[in-house]
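Question: Send over one sample?
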Amino acid sequence: MKPIIRIAFYDTKPFDRVYFEQSANSPDFSSVKFEFDFIEGKLTPLSAKLAKDHEVVCVFVNDHVTKEIVDILYSSGVRMIALRSAGYNNVDLEAVWEKIHVVRVPAYSPHAVAEYAVALLQTLNRKIHSAYNRIRDGNFQLNGLVGRDLYGKTAGIIGTGKIGKICAEILNGYGMHILLNDLYPDQAFADRIGAKYVEREELYRSSDVISLHCPLTPENYHMINRDNIALMKSDVIIINTGRGGLVDSQAMIEALKEGRIRGAGLDVYEEEDQYFFEDWSLAPIQDDNLVRLIQFPNVLLTSHQAFLTSEALEEIARTTLENIRLWVVDKKLANEICYQCDERGNRDDCRRETDGSCWPEK
């Protein structure tokens, strides 16, 4: 008889259901039976109680796994939290330590996010969004739509994981000079595309475009702030498809008002949890910073959709279910994270086992 794995999904949308059900019925998972319970609301102390009798809960980027929620899930019998995302700053990793395993999807479609970052850049640079709205109103004037060539300009890429590297390659193909910054420089990659690793201050001072592709850590929180914006060129364009907390929204608003940056393409926002992925068209938005950002003509803000391609959704579903299947059926762990591991899972003080587990089962 096939083993049955019950999974409670939180913060689910129609596309989540389509791709997870499609993947569960594929030949890859013919040896197991998944039972899905899709919950539209986010994971909260109240909704966490719905996970009773489920071995696994599956959450997304705006589900905050706090100590209180961990205690509720653990007492309900949950022993795995499967993130259908790469980032994990929304999880209290110390709280889950030696209680509930946490696994993630480290890479689904880095091309999707990198290509989207460049799409934001080109839309802002050539003011395509403004031109589109004008044409719909019957205004065919070109006044105020002057852009700039990207060829020959300098792009600064902060974070050179898979996404950052692909973004650098695309912009290098545009004929831009590429500056890179990362805690773990890949010099071979830089040499291959003719890029240069520099200190962050030099990147801020020299770049015409700055694109953020790093995780949100305590060290990176508000890495774009008043002090750093003061170092930048007054016509810089800032792109953020990483995490909202990388940018100090108030500092960015001040810079936009004073004309100290040319524009911002934001697919994430530091207080996005309440608004992103939901319909607020019939209700007033209470977040003053969010309202202000939306009103700037040189700000292009989208609702955390850089990942949203069919290829990415297929890979998210497949990897998430395989992470779960390996643990339940084969007693192995893939893509586990813990508070003793850095994002590469190689910190010396982590007791990572040969089967991928950061800690032995009790």
